[in-house]
Structure to design on (192 residues):
C-alpha cells in the first residue's frame, strides 16, 4: 500500500493553469457524476467496484446524476444504492474533471464527504464496503488521481483539478487546493 505523500507533483496549479484546463474541456460534452467519501475519524469507507467503469478499483460511492435531482441528491442516492447507508452531513469538497484520451466526453466529478450516516454499510451488486485506516488507504488499487487529492480531503480542505488519462495512467494534470467549496465548484465555469 502506498503512503500518503503531502506534496503531489500536480499540486502546483495556478488559477491560470486551471483556466487552461477548463479551456481544454470547453465545448466538449461533460458527464456529471458524483463521488462521496465517508470519513469517520481516522477511517474511510471505500468500496471495490464489482462491475462496469472502474471495475476492480476501490473508490468512494457515486455515479451519474439523474434528471430532476440536484447533485447532492444524486450523491446521497448513489451512496444509499451502493452502500446501503444514508449520509446526514454530506458536504461538497471538490470538483475534478477527468479526460480519457480518445474519448470526447469529459467526466465532471463532484466530490463530497460525510462523517455521519444512518444504517449499516452493506455490500451491493455494484460495490463492496470496507473500512480503511487513513494511513492504510489502498492507493495502488484506486484511481491514480486519488493519492493526489485525498490528503487535501482528509485534512478538511477543498480542491479542484483536471487529470488527463491514457487508459488508467495519468498523462497530465493540475490540482489546486481552494479556499472554499464555492471556489472549487466555480473553477470550470458554468456549474449545474
Ligand atoms: C478517473 O479518475 C477517477 N477517480 C476517482 N476517484 N473516481 C472516478 C474517476 N473517474 C470517475 N470516477 C467516479 C465517479 C463516479 O462515482 C464513478 C463512476 O460512476 P458510474 O459509471 O459507476 O456511474 P453509475 O451511475 O453508477 O453507472 P451505472 O449505469 O453503471 O449504474 O467513478
Amino acid at each position: 500500500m502506498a503512503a500518503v505523500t503531502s506534496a503531489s507533483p500536480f499540486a502546483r496549479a495556478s488559477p491560470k493553469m486551471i483556466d487552461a484546463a477548463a479551456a481544454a474541456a470547453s465545448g466538449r460534452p461533460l458527464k456529471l457524476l458524483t463521488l462521496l467519501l465517508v470519513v469517520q475519524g481516522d477511517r474511510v469507507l471505500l468500496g471495490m467496484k464489482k462491475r462496469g467503469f472502474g471495475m476492480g478499483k476501490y473508490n468512494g460511492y457515486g455515479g451519474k446524476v439523474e434528471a430532476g435531482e440536484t447533485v447532492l441528491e444524486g450523491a446521497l442516492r448513489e451512496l444509499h444504492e451502493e452502500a446501503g447507508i444514508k449520509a446526514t452531513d454530506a458536504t461538497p469538497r471538490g470538483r475534478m474533471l477527468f479526460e480519457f484520451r480518445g474519448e470526447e466526453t469529459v467526466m465532471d466529478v463532484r466530490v463530497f464527504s460525510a462523517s455521519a450516516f444512518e444504517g449499516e454499510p452493506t455490500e451491493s451488486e455494484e460495490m463492496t464496503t470496507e473500512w480503511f485506516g487513513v494511513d492504510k488507504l489502498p492507493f495502488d488499487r484506486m484511481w491514480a488521481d486519488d493519492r493526489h487529492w485525498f490528503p487535501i480531503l482528509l485534512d478538511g480542505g477543498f480542491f479542484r483539478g483536471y487529470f488527463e488519462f491514457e487508459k488508467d495512467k495519468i498523462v497530465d494534470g493540475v490540482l489546486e487546493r481552494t479556499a472554499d467549496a464555492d471556489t472549487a465548484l466555480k473553477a470550470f465555469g458554468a456549474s449545474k
